[in-house]
Amino acid sequence: MTHPFFDTDGYPWHRTEAVAFHRLLYRRFDKFADIQLVYKRISADLPPLDSGPSDHVWHAALEQCAKRRLLRTLHQQLLDNGDFGQNKDALAVLDAVRVSRAAVDLAVLPSVPGLVMLDRAQLRRYIRRLAPASNPLKVLLVRGEAQSGKSHGRHLFESAARDAGAKSVYLCDGLVATVEDVLVELFGAYSATAEIPAPESTDHGWYKAACGKLREIAERNGCALWIAVDDLGVAEDGAPLLDPQIRAFFEQFALHLVSGVYKDWFRLMLIDYPEGAVPSRWRNDLWAEDRTSRADITVEHVVELLTSWSAQRGKVVVEETVADVAAGILAAVDGPDGARAAGTGRLPQLHDLLVASLEADGEPEWT
User: Fold this and answer.
1) Global model pTM greater than 0.90
2) CA-CA distance, 190 to 221, in Å (whole number)?
């Protein structure tokens, strides 16, 4: 997977280590002349900076470096700076940037503090393939048992979008009710609702025009859009949760993603997609299916999370204790016979207990 600083086209402001790196720069180089000196050493091709407060100037400088894939060069120049070599706090910030891992590889997601993503190995593999424009996979279908975490996976999808410097939109029952609502959200992501095409005599013609205009806007903005659409299935009474025309719109949208002019700019995650065949005109390499189960998360996954979380903070876990804690958390969620997990949301309960354990005051009991 690409490095979240060195191999993307946008500065990852959503990451704590990115904010710390920015703070280090504007505090250490707080005079405009000093900033320019560092900036010009990175590359002669960088555009000039406007003067102003050091934090604003460095914000612009980091954006320009990211756009040109020059953050690695800046990072190395700082490592070679003698002043930084003598400052352990500065070196700690630089090291945090160096060892940053893509969100798709993490258990605690960087974009939303305290958001835990356990297991989902298959989803992670698909997202790694989904991200590069060169890979034909551009559509993920998410199917599975009720209360098995189908919707929770969209947080990993959104975090991967941020790592890629893309915008993300999440649509579900309650947020959108019609295709018109959907278009307002999609075009609104680019502040371009005034450019939504007027309805045509046929839905097919209108949807095609909307897809074309949205691609034009994405290209104009130079920013991709990752779209997660939830509640595409049916309620307990068999009625569709969303207007079937919304699914029809995105099924047509997906057809466009085989084209190079579209696949650079869009990714789709269709959650709770109905069982059965996909549209016959979808190419096999266009889409993949992630299937969830309530039994996906085991003690081993919880142990792995608690262990990695502790290691990131320089703490050593007590092997027997962390296994007992993990088993206790799962037992509290599942109950003695697993009935509680089946009757309510297993993953949300597990997530809340884990976050509470990780964020508890004092030393964790498993270290």
Assistant:
1) no
2) 8
